[in-house]
Amino acid sequence: MELDKNLNILIVGLGLMGGSYARALTSKGYKVKAIDTNQKSIDFALQNKFIIDGSSEVNTDMVSESDLIIFAVYPHAFIPWIEQYKDYIKKGAIITDVTGVKSCVVYDVQRILGDRAEFVAAHPMAGKETSGVESSDESIFENANYIVVPTDVNTFEAIETIKAIGQTLGFARISSLPPKAHDEMIGFVSQLTHCIAVCLMTCSKSEHLVDYTGDSFRDLTRIARINENMWSELFLLNKEALLKQMKTFMNEMENFYTLLENEDVEAMKDKMRLSTERRELFNKPAKGE
Predict the structure, then answer these.
(1) 39-49 pLDDT, tens digit each
(2) pTM of the entire structure?
(3) Sheet containing 32-35: which strands, arranged edge to edge?
């Protein structure tokens, strides 16, 4: 399904992800407007011509004219925004988001909206170590994954529209998960990995690591340059799932510790062969490539 070129698109939140959405959609010929509390972010996007209009305050006319609204804001700001401005949203509009956790957001937003508009959650598995609209870059979507997170109340047409956004942005793989399964998976593949990267950077007191590290350490800690406000919020909102994944990882690390302590070479090799086999799957091209 191709995203309708005549849609009036509004992005709420013009940081790294919102800005990257705006750049990608504009480059494909879509007309994009934006709302962000920071006037400098709006000015930057206007000067670089990847939005056609913007406001640092909630422009209710801009909201009511929009067929598709993409929320790229922190979870704690999303629900209050919907509560305050839901009556200005166009009847029949489609709403989506980029939020990293879903169960704590999706059902509340759908309840507040009622039958006024349809919210289909989505999670672009893409990003950078830097933040802000100045860092926005549409190329981050290349070879990346895009997860659509529908519920039973979503219509087929709305779900297909949100999938079409992923296709338009250039994601390599588009998949679908219900909210709880999404949060469990993200607890492992995203949040746990950020925890590991942070711990790798904080468990050694040496101030000279940079003088001795090779590519392996740099690769493992790339995401340790972290937005502490966003990620601490995401961790807390997905606390149960993340703690479970952390426990699983610590148990596996403890198991490998024991193998090494006992010099069980064959068992360590078995682990390494299994690791290599599973990692090899990541080198296979996405469907359609």
Answers:
(1) 999 999 999 99
(2) 0.91
(3) 53-55, 32-35, 9-12, 68-71, 94-97, 118-119
